[in-house]
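Tutorial handout. Part one gives the primary structure; part two gives the three-dimensional structure as tokens.
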Amino acid sequence: MTLLLSLPLAALALILLIPSSVLAVECLMALARPRAACRREGLEGRYVTKAVVIPAHDEALSIGRTLSALLPELEGQDRVLVVADNCTDATATVAAGLGVEVLERKDPDRRGKGFALDFALKHLRPDPPEVVVFLDADCELTPGSLEELAQVAQSRGRPAQAHYRMRQDGDLDRPGVAGFAWRLRGLVRPMGLAALGMPCQLYGTGMALPWAVLERLSLASGHIVEDMKLTLDLIDEGALPLFCADACVISAFPATEEAAAGQRRRWEHGHIATILGHGLPALWRSLRKGDPQRLALALDVCVPPLSLFLVLLALATLLILPAVLFFDLGQGALALLGLSWGLTLAGLFLAWFRFGRDLIPVRRLLLMPIYVASKLLLYLEFFTRRQKEWNRADRE
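Part two.
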């Protein structure tokens, strides 16, 4: 009987050990080989025809800055295609005034970034480029990043993802924890995977896909975390994305607390739903195929958001520790859980020490539990008021 009661606790601890191990290995490898090269093969500098697709929903205030940074990077027959998607402002007018192609899409019943991307690809299909680069309307590619992404994607025949960097406009993230969590996701973890020779997730912007890969995909959806869904589709297709640390795309956190809360709700609810509905099945399929590349990417996708994972570890501790202390059950589970805590905290410390001290000074580390606890309501709302539709985050 004792064994039967202990097995569920051990299973819970073992499940949590998997993402802990993934996170720790990624952080360690990012520290060991911080600049793993993303190799080009076979092109030797040949010009790659490319189109930059920019979906934009009411982005009149930001699209001009994005295009002004992008246009000097164009060469040859490069095209820029702005999709003014269900806009109620002057997005199309501003973009057209800068001399780029503009498509206006009016379909309020089919809202979402995926529909806008699909609309652009249909426009490009009669004369397709070799590579399509996707860029959000509030993002800027650093000089040289456009060419780097296109060259890598075309030479390797695989999607390429730039380092996605967030700047903090204003003072909404006083402890810097959100900025550190983003850097962990957008730089440290993919860098660790690249150091292992493994693929990375796509982040929805600053990503380049060969046309030959895009032809096999269907982007038309209103999925609220379309980047994760696209990554999972690419796992099934065997077209696994590469991380290009030398290319960088920059955006900003939302400008108001209300907008930031809305963005967090969309990201984290979508992240959880995608892991449960698509990530775990993709992980099982990868295991059955026995492909280490697909398996590594599926495992990475299934790592929960950082705050949620810390909450899950804390809840498991509250469940397992009393069982050990008062009922003499689950000693093995407690050992596994302790290992999970150790791996997670060690990985986070290594990542913070090497990549995050500018965001979270030592004196503010003690604020991290408060930040994590502040998101408990957000996770409870996943079961009561889950967000299922795409919404735009206000960054102005």
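Part three, for discussion. The beta strands are 50-56, 79-85, 101-105, 131-134, 140-141, 160-167, 207-210, 242-252. The longest strand covers residues 242-252.
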